[in-house]
Amino acid sequence: MKFIQFTVDHDSSVKKGIISSEGVKEISGNIFTSWDYTGDIFKENQIKVTSPLEPNQVIGIGANFVKEPEDLPAPPEMPVFFFKPTSSVIGPNEDIVIPEDLDSVKFESEIAVVIGKNAKNIQEDEVADYIFGYTIGNDVTAPQYFHSDGHWMLGKAFDTFTPLGPAIETDFDLAKTRIKAYHNEEKKQDSNVDVMIVSINKMISYLSRVLTLKAGDVILTGSPVGAEFLQEEDTIECEVEGIGRLRNQVVKERKKVSL
After folding, report:
1. Which CATH number fits domain 1-49: 2.30.30, 3.40.50, 2.60.120, 3.30.70?
2. What are phi and psi of 181, to 5 degrees?
């Protein structure tokens, strides 16, 4: 199933739905515990798709891909993780806003794992039981805000720096997918999970030994080689085969001038 969130013309309230051959079937309830159909069906041209969820927290992993399988190192004993604030989350077709004082901002197309229930001290072979589904994330990054000692959070934390969407796919074949990015319609990233240094099972198991993961947590699993810098008026489309495409535009923040 593909779960989405959306608004309808002249109604700012966010609705939940499932994509079907008939259109988007609205649902009510909690997608992680209990939900039901409302009976309302919307056509694509009637809705605006938003971020597919409001995460409890967003956790990313750093430098998790190589170019070729023969380049793979041994997984690190302590992977590099970082938090991204939920205030940075936006949905499809929303603007990525580059603050005026930033010189350079990168896109990073990623598979985003959505946790479905509390996970604490789980083993790698148990991870699948705790995953609700998968969506697409763009881990927008400002390297100039990386601390010289290796702290990354500030460079990941700006408003609009975590586009998510368009849907949460619960029927997803991780082994057969490819992660891609199209920068102004030119393909820049294209990779499968075979060149992921820390596997999704390993990273979620590791995190669960440090903190309790909860339903609605989002784990960004790393970006393939090929990420580049964004400029004002650019368009970036992140694609994960089997889920869809996440498209966003880039604008530059303009400071208000006092009169």
Report:
1. 2.30.30
2. -145, 140
Phi/psi for 142 (5° steps) reads -110, 95
Residue intervals in the chain for CATH 2.30.30: 1-49
β-pairing, 218-220 vs 58-61, is parallel
The pLDDT tens digits for 34-69 are: 999 999 999 999 999 999 999 999 999 999 999 999
Paired with 65 in beta bridges are 196
Please write the tens of the pLDDT for every residue from 121-173.
999 999 999 999 999 999 999 998 887 766 778 899 999 999 999 999 999 99
Q: Which residues contact 248 (CB under 8 A, 6 or more apart)?
A: 90, 92, 93, 94, 95, 96, 138, 163, 235, 236, 237
Of 111, 114, 156, the closest CA to residue 136 belongs to 111
Asked if 73 and 63 count as a contact pair (C-beta separation under 8 A), the reply is: no
Beta-bridge partner residues of 63: none
For the domain 51-252, what is the CATH code? 3.90.850.10
pTM score: 0.95
